[in-house]
Predict the structure.
Amino acid sequence: MKIAKFGGSSLANAAQIKKVCDIVLADSDRRIIVVSAPGKRTSDDIKVTDLLIATAKARLNGGSYEDELNAVIARYREICDDLNIEDTLPDVIETLKSAAASDTTDAVTYVDTVKAMGEDCNARVVAAYLSSIGHPAKYCNPKECGLFLEHDAAGKAKILGESYDNLAELAHEKCICIFPGFYGYGRDGKIITFSRGGSDVTGAILAGAVNAEVYENWTDVDNVFAVNPNLVNNPFPITEITYDEMRELAYAGFSVLHEEALYPVYVRDIPVHIKNTNNPSSKGTRIVANRTRYDSLVTGIAGERGFLTITVTKYLMNHEVGFISKLLEILAEEGIPVEHLPSGIDSITIIARKKYFTPEKEEIVINRFRNEAKAETVKVDRDLAIVMIVGQAMEKSVGIMARAASALSTAGINLRIVNQGASEISMMFGVSEEYCDYAVRVLYKELFRY
């Protein structure tokens, strides 16, 4: 059995949905299909998810939300008309109106409920279209199928263990199952969504639940590339990459696959195959446990803004047992995940994401570091981007760090942090946010010699 997930660009309109269904029907092993909400039809279009968020915000602000909701309905009306499944439209409209008119007491839950309907309605549409052309398919409601989630300490959605057993029952379905991505339900029956791109996670969970042969992730590019194609012309294509390499690159900004989508397939050794809906004959990129080929010494380079550093100093810190543990305990109690911890003898730099370290949190943490951990100085710098060089082949190579550092120095980019990954498959450089894209281009030119 193959699990196939299709992204928003693959399902943006009726013509794209027909392409998707042709791909599904071309292989009888594709029995469980995960769909995203319709994406952009053109570069200046608006995604359905964004229209739904606008609908929810309009209602929460106390104004009329009819214009925003009607824009969503118009998208689905056009799709249903072009697919000749007009009978499905009333169900879609009722689903959208019911969500938009639901209880707003909990604003977070309300927004989740409304924005999840993009995937939900698209699953209904795709199932109806397949059935209309003679291929029995069913819309699978995540609650009825048993996809249960909860929020962790940082507010992220995480799957509950029993969900895998619940979802495993889908393997016994005789027809094609169309499953909406991006969301599940809490035990209280309320909708919980993953973060942006969360349909990738849904597909990985389903692949793990049914122990799929492969998890196909269909998008709008032929391959994962060694660098963001918006930064470099004709970037080097990656044909094979390991879970670990992909995880490192996703962490640093690779947007082809959601960074949380690998774990459910990684622990079950299920390969992921990224392919292009608009060019299904392309070989794509396979994500595997162990590589069989290396096309280049470095697999990929990526950069991500939005980080900060908290530098803590205390004389003879290295002699004080439990000092670092105390700092980490304080951050954990304040709900701030730690990304990296480069340190010296009398100082340690904590790297975190700015979205978790609000100005309010900053004041609390600084005071706690000084009062409870007896830190001498605490300095926060919010201007940090992380640039990663990733490649399994680097483990047995010499000189990559020297080449990278020299190239960045020659380009006039000051290195604020340099850190070698413990597994030796990644190198991290901290630079000012304004130099993030430039640093990626410099490193790509040096290491791929384009």
